[in-house]
Design a protein that fits this description.
Chain lengths: ~180, ~160
C-alpha cells in the first residue's frame, strides 16, 4: 500500500486484485438497490479514490478497513447524489421512485413465499439506517471486530455495540416470518 | 438487570466483545427471563440466516479495467509542485540563477529579436519595458551586472 502511495502502479494492481472481491461484496450488500453492474462500477470508483488517497495512507490503519471506509463513503455519496437527482426529477414533475421509506419496505412486503431467502434478507437490510446496515455487513460478511468496524464507521467501539444491537433487534422483527435456520 | 441492557450485552457477547463479568450477569438474567432467552436464541440463528445473502462475483478483468481508469498521479500541478519542492532548499540561489538565465537569453537574442520574431503587439508590457531598459545599458554594463549577480549567488545565504 505504501508503494502504491508512491505511485507504484503494479503494487496498486496487486492490491486491487487481492481486495476487489471483498469491496464488491461490501458495496452490493450495503446498497440494497444497486444491481451487480452498478455495484461493480462503484467498486471501481472505490479503487480510483483509493489511488488518489494512497499518498495519505498511514500504516497504522489496516489496508482493508481503510478501503472499506472509502467504500462506505463512496456508497453514501452515491446515495446522496441519487436522492438529489430524485428530488430534481420530482421538481420537474416527472414520475420517479416513491419516497425512500416506501421503496425500502416494498420489496419485503411484496416478496412472496417463492422469493429466495437471499432476496428477503437483502430487503430486510434495506430497511435499516445506513450505519446499522454497514455494521451488520461488516460484522457478518467481513468478520471485523468492533474496533475495526468503529474504524470504518468513524465511531467508537461502544457506538458499534449499540448500532449492532439495534440492527439485530430490527432484523429479528423484519425477518420474523423467514426461517432463521440456515 | 433490565432486559434492554441484558440484550445489548447478549448481542455483543455473541461477537466475543464482552468481558466475562458482564457476560455472566447477562447470561444469568437470560436464564430467568424468557424474553431475553428468546432474543439470544433468535440472534444465534440470525447469523446463519444472513449467510444466505449471496453477492455476485466480480466479472473477469476487473483489475484491468480499474488500472485503465487510473489517472496519472503526476498532473501539471503536481509537476509544478515537485519542481517547487526541488527549488525549496535554495530559493534565493536558484532564483538568481533563473534571472541570470533570463538575462543571458535576452542578451543572446539581442534587440533584434523583438522586431525579427515577434511583433510589438505580441510582447507583453513588462517585456517591452524590460527590453527598452536593456537597450539603454551598454554591453560593458551588462557584463558587469552579470558578474555581480554571479558573485552574489556564491555567497547567497541558503534558506533552511
Ligand atoms: Zn430480560
Amino acid at each position: 500500500m505504501l508503494a502504491a502511495g508512491q505511485g507504484d502502479r503494479s503494487a496498486f494492481a496487486d492490491l486491487v486484485e487481492r481486495r476487489h472481491h471483498a469491496i464488491l461484496r461490501f458495496v452490493y450488500r450495503f446498497l440494497p438497490r444497486v444491481d451487480r453492474d452498478a455495484a461493480e462500477d462503484l467498486a471501481q470508483d472505490v479503487f480510483l479514490s483509493a489511488w488518489k488517497s494512497a499518498p495519505s495512507y498511514r500504516p497504522q490503519a489496516l489496508v482493508m478497513t481503510w478501503l472499506l471506509r472509502i467504500a462506505r463513503n463512496t456508497c453514501l455519496n452515491y446515495q446522496r447524489a441519487r436522492r438529489l437527482r430524485r428530488t430534481e426529477s420530482l421538481d420537474d414533475g416527472r414520475p420517479e421512485d416513491p419516497p425512500a421509506g416506501q421503496v425500502q419496505r416494498t420489496p419485503l412486503e411484496a416478496a412472496d413465499a417463492a422469493a429466495t431467502r437471499s432476496e428477503r434478507i437483502r430487503a430486510a437490510l434495506a430497511c435499516l439506517p445506513h450505519q446499522q446496515r454497514a455494521a451488520v455487513v461488516l460484522k457478518y460478511f467481513h468478520d471485523l471486530s468492533y474496533a475495526e468496524i468503529a474504524d470504518v464507521l468513524e465511531t467508537s467501539v461502544s457506538g458499534v455495540e449499540s448500532v449492532l444491537f439495534r440492527a439485530r433487534r430490527s432484523l429479528r422483527t423484519l425477518l420474523e416470518d423467514v426461517p432463521l435456520d440456515s | 438487570m433490565r432486559c434492554r441492557k441484558a440484550q445489548r450485552i447478549l448481542s455483543a457477547g455473541l461477537d466475543g466483545e464482552v468481558s466475562g463479568r458482564r457476560s455472566k450477569a447477562a447470561g444469568e438474567h437470560a436464564q430467568s427471563c424468557s424474553a431475553c432467552a428468546a432474543f439470544a436464541h433468535d440472534l444465534a440463528r440470525l447469523g446463519g440466516a444472513l449467510q444466505a445473502f449471496r453477492s455476485p462475483a466480480p466479472s473477469d478483468g476487473f483489475t484491468r479495467r480499474v488500472m485503465a481508469r487510473l489517472p496519472r498521479r503526476q498532473s501539471g500541478l503536481d509537476i509544478l509542485q515537485s519542481w517547487l519542492e526541488l527549488l525549496r532548499p535554495a530559493p534565493l540561489g536558484v532564483g538568481v540563477a533563473a534571472f541570470c538565465l533570463g538575462v543571458g537569453l535576452v542578451l543572446l537574442t539581442g534587440g533584434d529579436s523583438a522586431s525579427a520574431d515577434t511583433g510589438d503587439d505580441a510582447l507583453t508590457g513588462w517585456t517591452r519595458e524590460y527590453q527598452e531598459i536593456l537597450a539603454e545599458v551598454s554591453m560593458e554594463e551588462r557584463m558587469l551586472t552579470l558578474s555581480t549577480i554571479n558573485g552574489g549567488d556564491d555567497h547567497a545565504p541558503l534558506a533552511p
